[in-house]
Amino acid sequence: MTLLRTCPRCGAVAQEPGDHGPTWTCEVHGPIVPVGPAQAPTQKLVRQVALDSLVPVWMPRPMPEGWELTGLQWAGAGAGGSVACVVAVSGPHPLPEMGDEEPTVDLMFVAEQPGIGLGAHLAGMDGVDPGPLLAEKAQHDPAEIKLTADDHEVPLWSVPLDGGLAYVGEASGVWLWMLAWPSSAALALLHRFSLVDARNEDTEPDLPCGALTPRLR
To answer: Which InterPro entries match (predicted)?
Structure first.
């Protein structure tokens, strides 16, 4: 069975290379790099994705207590390797008194090359990438938060996200997005972990894996 591939910018079904041209295309956005369906993570799948990725596969370390990996998704065409990768993790709200309506928190970390559009789509934004927005923000405002990714401090700026918080910056030469639902959880979690690139791990990661989060279905 052929897995459905979609447009990273809008989620529409992508058209395979063929009579209409040599590349994957979207009826709305033209030539694209297609995205495969999100998958429930396993230790083995994380390792396979990391071996095939041209961008970081960001994993939180240490994983907050009670948390687990809940989704993997990536964009790529052919044997060239993935040019965007999404890692989802989920767990209990760090502030129980604020988590009555949404006791479960979802975080997503997206690494992508410029021009792909997957992070912007997951954040509900128009456009391909946040370059113009970040250029304006960085010119007038200091970074709103900082994450440590592979032992480097990464400045991030906020972008709009319905019902949650989203931050974006640049790490390892590509975009790094952090998306969090609900918004009350994001800032309370930031000091609890750093990010490591699973591509640098020599073995399969020893991380708890759970069912696929509905946010990636």
So the answer is: DUF6758 (IPR046646)
